[in-house]
Amino acid sequence: MEIFLNLQSKGQWISRGLQQSDNQNSTQDSWGYHRNWHEKLPEALWAYRITYRTPTQATPYSLVYGTEAVLPIEVELPSLRVAMVSEIPLTKQMQLKLQELDGMDERRLAAQQNLELYQARMIRAYEKLSRARAFRKGELVLVLR
Predict the structure, then answer these.
(1) Under 8 Å CB-to-CB from 53, ≥6 apart: which residues?
(2) pTM of the prediction?
(3) DSSP class of residue 88?
(4) HSE (CB half, 13 Å, CA atoms) of 81?
(5) What are the residues whose beta carbons fall under 8 Å from the beta carbon of 17, sequence distance 6 or more?
(6) Which molecular-function annotations from GO does this UniProt entry contain (predicted)?
């Protein structure tokens, strides 16, 4: 029996006969069947919203709601953070929440400033790598669109 190997775009050697079945299995393993992607989407978006972002130095969730998200596992198996909040009386919790909301504008302003600094750093890094080119009248220029 002969097995012909070829180089896949990822740089991995695979047999020609198994390529299609491997691609199908990897899709089913990661998302299940293609028809239930809408069931997995909220989990993926939730993970995206609570992930720390370098440009803003905050999570999108904290910028919108003013507090860090509580992981579902922390609700089932109470962490120290959840246990401390659950022991505080409701009136005190409301006062703390109002104090956090008062500080949201400052946090959003700080996130905006961090974003502007990050963008300036990216611009400087790009300009360092690129070089200005001056063209004179009559020179031939290749334009790619």
Answers:
(1) 59, 60
(2) 0.49
(3) S
(4) 10
(5) 3, 4
(6) nucleic acid binding
